[in-house]
């Protein structure tokens, strides 16, 4: 596989990043994941805009290659022959001379930029999307700036492990009795014909897929409420689903012990998944 590191396309085995890189030492970096369907990028502009915001919130310099990122994504998709899969992009504050909590002088360090692809044949019709997934609820003990897409992913990883041990597929995180989001996705419930998802704030990541799905839902005259909801409401919902760049709209059929509806993906989730895939394929670049 060919990867991109700081201006160079290299075989993955030749790619190197310093051990002093602040993302390695302090999780001082941000990332984006963009899906590829039929060799084209889904919602690239949204991901680029969020990257710019994450960098600016953390005072990380925009890398020199920022304006070439579309071209770099496309080139990696091309050389690696990706039909369905994803492109991972990470930008870190860079490698300072020594380990120090204080940010290095931006004159002295350049951000590190790494991109690689992952091929996922059949990404848009995974068995999980047909069966739906089971989620457990866990406490949300992450930091207070979840709107910034940092590489600080230890607790989400632990959450996925807790889910796995419990025989589930993923975890929804709970703060003050309310669902914030999934470990790597935004969370939704459906009551009657209303789609409910938490309002945007620093408590959740502002999902690029979320923005698109809510837009498509409104265009299709579906009712949307952006408000927080409790885990009890979720257990009592008619349907539930999650959204992310790599899973699109993924039906949820069980929350803790509560089976939703008849335990199969509900009509609203299925319809939204279809609309999302159709519309985002049309807009892919
Ligand atoms: N919430 C969290 C915590 C995430 O990690 C992600 C994606 O990785 C999302 C939500 C979904 O965001 P997007 O739709 O932009 O992939």
Automatic annotation (TrEMBL):
The keyword RNA-binding does not apply. GO terms for cellular component: cytosol. It comes from the Bacteria. CDD domains: D-AAT_like. One of its GO terms (molecular function) is L-valine-2-oxoglutarate transaminase activity. Its EC number is 2.6.1.42. Its cofactor is pyridoxal 5'-phosphate. Pathway: Amino-acid biosynthesis; L-isoleucine biosynthesis; L-isoleucine from 2-oxobutanoate: step 4/4; Amino-acid biosynthesis; L-leucine biosynthesis; L-leucine from 3-methyl-2-oxobutanoate: step 4/4; Amino-acid biosynthesis; L-valine biosynthesis; L-valine from pyruvate: step 4/4. PROSITE patterns: AA_TRANSFER_CLASS_4. It catalyses: L-leucine + 2-oxoglutarate = 4-methyl-2-oxopentanoate + L-glutamate; L-valine + 2-oxoglutarate = 3-methyl-2-oxobutanoate + L-glutamate; L-isoleucine + 2-oxoglutarate = (S)-3-methyl-2-oxopentanoate + L-glutamate. It is an enzyme of class 2 (transferase). The keyword Ubl conjugation does not apply. Keywords: Amino-acid biosynthesis, Aminotransferase, Branched-chain amino acid biosynthesis, Pyridoxal phosphate, Transferase. Coiled coil: none annotated. Acts on leucine, isoleucine and valine. Belongs to the class-IV pyridoxal-phosphate-dependent aminotransferase family. NCBIfam families: PRK06680.1. This is Probable branched-chain-amino-acid aminotransferase. It comes from Salibaculum griseiflavum. The lineage of its organism: Bacteria, Pseudomonadati, Pseudomonadota, Alphaproteobacteria, Rhodobacterales.
